[in-house]
Amino acid sequence: MTGIRYKEGYKYVLVTDYATRIEIHPAATIRTEYIKLSKNGALRIKHGYAWDGASGPAFDTRNFMRGSLVHDCLYQLMREKLLLQTEREAADKILRRIVLEDGMSAVRAWWVFQGVRLGGGPSADPANDNPVIEAP
């Protein structure tokens, strides 16, 4: 029997492509298997992309899902060293903007923003990518 290789940490899978414009404009277009971020801030996430939703003490709600998707993509690009760590604050502000657009209360959006500002650094750090696990 052949073993498998996998990573932990994912709860959701995108079933349709998603496209939006964001405030981050990299010097060159970034392309991965599931993410494309153009120099003009056009972000495209392909169906099949997996992410973990809200992190920490936060909980997943409909008004958090789109923001968590985009935010997780941006942090992944930072972990993969395709997007500069200096863009982390901009990514956190994009999360706040999207959750507010999607109807999250200003108070909760403030707490979400504070949470990612204070505790999100390790999630964007290339040294903290989820390890590959082998089974059996």
Commentary on this structure:
This protein is α+β, with helices and mostly antiparallel strands and 136 residues long. It has one domain (10-125). 37% of the residues lie in helices and 17% in strands. It is built from 4 helices and 8 strands; from the N terminus they run βββββββααααβ. Strands 3-6-5-4 form a 4-stranded antiparallel sheet, with no helix packed on it. Strands 1-8 form a two-stranded antiparallel sheet. β4 (30-31) and β5 form a beta hairpin. The model has no long low-confidence stretch (mean pLDDT 93).
In short:
The chain has helices spanning 62-79, 88-101, 106-119, 121-124, and strands at residues 4-6, 12-13, 18-21, 30-31, 35-37, 42-45, 50-51, 133-135.
Keywords:
single chain; 136 residues; alpha+beta; four-stranded antiparallel sheet; two-stranded antiparallel ribbon; 8 strands; 37% helix
Major beta sheet, strand line-up: 3-6-5-4
Largest sheet geometry? 4 strands, antiparallel
Rg result: 15 Å
Span of the ends, CA to CA: 9 Å
Unreliable runs: none
Described by the principal axes of the CA atoms, the overall outline is: globular
N to C succession of SSEs: EEEEEEEHHHHE
Please state the structural category.
alpha+beta
Strand content: 15-25%
How much helical structure, as a percent, in the residues? 25-40%
Mean of pLDDT: 93
> In the residues, how many domains can be counted?
1
Give the strand tally.
8
Count of DSSP helices?
A: 4
